[in-house]
Amino acid sequence: MQQLHRVVQRTLPIPIKHRINLLLQRAGLERFVDSVIKKRRIVVVYQVGKVGSTSVTHSLHQADFSVYQVHEISPARLQQMQDLVAEGYPATDYVARKVDEGRWVYNQLQRGRRDLLFLSLVRDPVAIAVSSFFNNPEITLESDRWLEEYSVDELIDQFFAHDYATSTWFTSWFDRELKPGLGIDVYAHPFDPVRGYTRIQQDNADLMIIKLEADDALKERAIAELTGLAQFRLARQHVRAETEAGHVYRAFKDRLRLPDDILDIHYQTRWATHFYTEDEIAAFRAFWRGDNR
User: Fold this and answer.
1) Are 290 and 257 in contact (CB under 8 A)?
2) Smallest Cα–Cα separation from 65: which of 119, 120, 112?
3) Does residue 140 sit within a domain?
């Protein structure tokens, strides 16, 4: 198998390589083994990127669930991503895999499958923007320089220059993606910011929304309710903090200061006002303004 993989990498055109790589890695066989032979239940972690779901995903795997992490399942967005793959977009293997997984999830829903469990985490919108900026720096910064070679001030300049500071791409995700993907208007359903989670069951979709900032005991209770487990435990995972880039990330957050007009863009959205209390929003604003730093 490894020899065949090397032949694929060296001899075939890029679009063909991506498709064959997908088939070699797992294609439908992995899903068949998980859901039919091993009879694992499937949890789809379906959310905007960079909300901090690593620990949740890892813990679901440990609890013997088959876990799919997707950001898009709506046909229009999947087609846009497929076009990027055809154009040789950076990180093409990853994007192609996510297109394949997202399309599979959507097709299962269209066929009336009712046993898929959906989980979405929400997070402070500015924290999402900052984390996303650091996710693929070679693409964001359009440079071959290592992230650690930039000064913090240079990175802050790039954060503004690439519109991460003002983008509403992340906070519009529920309307842009989940609503056409699952047919659920999240904002039409009540959410208690103090409780920190809600479950929405509509048609053949079963969706749990949880605030990342909620304590672990609350997250465990919500996921246990969704999955039907008597008990669920989160295993803590620390990824970014253990790398050199993690030190840059922390220094960036410590140095970043956002004015009120930019904070208004994020904290006057339905995302912020639906999922967070006024006190929580005030605390977020104070942090990113630099009041307490």
Assistant:
1) yes
2) 119
3) yes
Q: Is 107 a domain residue?
A: yes
Contacts of 31 (CB under 8 A, 6+ apart): 66, 104
- Best CA proximity match to 93, nearest among 103, 84, 102, 106: 84
Please say whether the beta carbons of 45 and 68 come within 8 A: yes
Residue 174, token pair as written in the block: 């529920």
| Coarse DSSP helix, strand, coil percentages of the chain, rounded to the nearest 5 percent | 55, 10, 35
Beta strands in 21-122 (DSSP E): 42-46, 66-70, 117-122
Closest CA to 263 of 288, 283, 280, 290: 288
Domain that holds residue 204: 40-289
| DSSP 8-state class, residue 34 | I
- Closest to 188 (Cα-Cα) out of 207, 216, 169: 207
Q: Give domain status of residue 196, yes or no.
A: yes
Residue 180 resides in a domain: yes
Q: What is the pTM of this model?
A: 0.85
The owner of tokens 């994020």 is 266
- The CATH number that applies at residue 150 is 3.40.50
pLDDT in tens, the chain (293 residues): 434 444 444 444 444 544 544 454 444 555 545 555 456 789 999 999 888 888 999 999 999 999 999 999 999 999 998 888 888 776 677 788 889 999 999 999 999 999 999 999 999 999 999 999 988 776 677 766 777 788 999 999 999 999 999 999 999 999 999 999 999 999 999 999 999 999 999 999 999 999 999 999 999 999 999 999 999 999 876 555 545 577 889 999 999 999 999 999 999 999 999 999 999 999 999 999 999 77
